[in-house]
Amino acid sequence: MLRLRGAGRRFGRRVVFSDLDLDVGAGGRVLLAGPNGAGKTTLLRCLSGTLTLSTGQATVAGHPVGSPDARRATGVCLAPEQGLYEQLTAHQNITLVARLRLPRRAVPAAVTGIEEELGIARYASLPVARCSAGMRARISIARSLVAAPALLLLDEPGRSLDEEGRRLLWQSIDRRTELTCVVASHHADDGRHCRQRLTLVAAG
Question: What is the dihedral angle through the alpha carbons of 117, 157, 183, 149, rounded to the nearest 10 degrees?
Fold first, then answer.
């Protein structure tokens, strides 16, 4: 499902990471570990297609990262409590993504289902600006899952989630047995859910 070969990224002369190789099958769970500044978020951005690799290659389901097919297969939550439309409700934020990625008739059921699954339903009519950081994180995760992606990219999902929010997140991921997940996290509980580990080292 996800393959990296000789993947590297630099900014000018500064090498963030280099020569990364990784193979993850469908349903795989990968923990990105390493200190702050080691390039975990940068790697996730490269996998999502918002940054390009400087060297090497990466594919999602056989498609080059950043290509339309790879983007359609990828759910992204890189800033769990940010990137939402503040004046729209939680429901409207999730629906917006669902309409972009799903057939119109499938949207209502998909949105309602993910709202219930992540404990958002009773807050769904609130403007995002009035939601707590933890609820905003749940809404962002719901947007990344609503269109049933094949690959899910998460950056520090537990930063704003309480224990119940983390439980609901991993319950949702584990329910999707074919979903491949790459998560950058310092939280021990996230690591326990992952069967593979890729440790990045901060450039000297």
Answer: 40
Any domain includes 204: no
Would you write out the chain's pLDDT as a tens digit for each of its 204 residues? 999 999 999 999 999 999 999 999 999 999 999 998 899 999 999 999 999 999 999 999 999 999 999 999 999 998 765 679 999 999 999 999 999 999 999 999 999 999 999 999 999 999 999 999 999 999 999 999 999 999 999 999 878 889 999 999 999 999 999 999 999 998 888 899 999 999 998 765
CATH number for position 134: 3.40.50.300
Report the number of distinct structural domains present in the chain: 1
Long-range contacts for 22-28 (Cβ within 8 Å, ≥24 apart)? Answer: 22/196, 22/198, 24/180, 24/182, 24/196, 25/1, 25/180, 26/1, 26/150, 26/178, 26/180, 27/177, 27/178, 27/179, 27/180, 28/1, 28/2, 28/180, 28/181, 28/195, 28/196
Rounded CA-CA distance 188/103 in Å is 38
Q: Which domain holds residue 177?
A: 2-199
